[in-house]
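stage 2 :: seqdesign
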């Protein structure tokens, strides 16, 4: 009988010990947050480049979807601090030559990319076909990589932009509009971007339009941004801060730190 009581006593002691250990672990446990919702490493781009002009197309209805895109709560451009500082160097460089940056898009939350996917998978929605993809069948936007399930924009170091002439107050003529789905958007549509030689065959963009694209491209690459083969307006910082993280916090102002 005494042996049984001792056994019960030891079992109770063990149980109390386990319960105490569990409570201690719980009290010391850190709250784990989803990194993709953390905007602490991002800045509002106009806080870094105050004279950048914003035309955030996905906050408006003037885009290839024809509606405001999910996640764009304010018409702002956000980037990682590193990317914003690099873009500031581009801006300072180009201002000396009489140009200002005009931003169409920068950080793009994953929820916005998901919105693009829903649009692309709906064959009945052709509201903007005449304005952005008149020569494409909608299913081919995946094959030609105009829409994908992931976007470098969601990593925070990619920007879509053009240039404004400070003398005339007008955008430079790039020979095509932002988000045009077609070969006319390819940087090499008028010549060889590597050698900057223009091809004057009468079927592509003009020499002035090609030159304007090269002004933007050269300045961006000089400060660490890489171009994209099928979009003259798209550039990604080579040494990006978060190469494997696709953020999903909405776009709204981030106070200066």
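stage 2 :: out
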């Amino acid at each position: 009988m005494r042996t049984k009581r001792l056994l019960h006593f030891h079992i109770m002691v063990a149980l109390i010990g386990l319960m105490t250990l569990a409570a201690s672990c719980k009290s010391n446990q850190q709250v784990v947050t989803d990194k993709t919702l953390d905007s602490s490493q991002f800045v509002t781009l106009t806080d870094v480049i105050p004279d950048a002009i914003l035309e955030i197309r996905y906050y408006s209805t003037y885009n290839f979807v024809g509606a405001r895109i999910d996640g764009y709560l304010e018409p702002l451009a956000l980037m990682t601090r590193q990317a914003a500082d690099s873009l500031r160097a581009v801006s300072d460089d180009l201002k000396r030559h009489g140009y200002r940056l005009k931003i169409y898009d920068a950080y793009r939350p994953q929820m916005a990319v998901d919105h693009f996917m829903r649009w692309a998978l709906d064959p009945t929605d052709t509201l903007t076909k005449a304005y952005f993809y008149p020569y494409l069948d909608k299913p081919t936007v995946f094959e030609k990589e105009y829409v994908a399930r992931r976007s470098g924009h969601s990593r925070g170091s990619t920007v879509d932009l053009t240039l404004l002439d400070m003398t005339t107050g007008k955008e430079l003529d790039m020979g095509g509009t932002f988000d045009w789905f077609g070969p006319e958007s390819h940087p090499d549509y008028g010549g060889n971007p590597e050698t900057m030689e223009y091809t004057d065959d009468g079927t592509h963009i003009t020499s002035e339009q090609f030159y304007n694209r090269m002004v933007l491209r050269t300045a961006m690459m000089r400060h660490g941004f890489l171009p994209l083969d099928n979009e003259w307006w798209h550039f990604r910082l080579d040494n990006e801060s978060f190469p494997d993280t696709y953020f999903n916090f909405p776009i709204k102002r981030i106070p200066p730190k």
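stage 3 :: structure notes
- The longest strand covers residues 158-165.
- The two ends are 71 Å apart (CA to CA).
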